[in-house]
Amino acid sequence: MSLTHAIETYILAKDGNRPHLLRRAFAADAELVMNVKTDEISFPSMVKGLDGLSATLVSQFAQRYENIYTFCLGTPPGNVVVFRCGWLVCMSTKPPGQCG
Asked: Checking phi first, is residue 67 left (phi over 0); if not, alpha (psi -120 to 50) or beta?
């Protein structure tokens, strides 16, 4: 799978609350480093392993948010091993009583 396709699959998994798709986008021992530039949402600075990625980026995220749209801000990657880019994620908070 190309890196571009892996990013597209990750976005589909996260935005659509489909954690099972992450195994197509990440290796079992993947590590994700995040630098969140807003106080409106919090994430751990690092997540390790497919189970951690799935819980943090999809399952727990979908418990609090809906109408999720993710945009990767950058030129699609070429033949690289590491890809860094900015992200814009738009979503709405679920009404009280619908979270969890």
From this structure: left
Please compute the mean of the pLDDT values over residues 49-59 and round it to a whole number: 92
Give residues with Cβ within 8 angstroms of 100, minimum separation 6: 63
Distance CA 62, CA 59 (A): 5
Q: Is the pTM of this model over 0.85?
A: no
Q: Which residues contact 44 (CB under 8 A, 6 or more apart)?
A: 34, 56
pLDDT in tens, 16-40: 999 999 999 999 999 888 887 778 7
- At 45, list the tokens: 């600075």
Class for the domain spanning 3-93? alpha beta
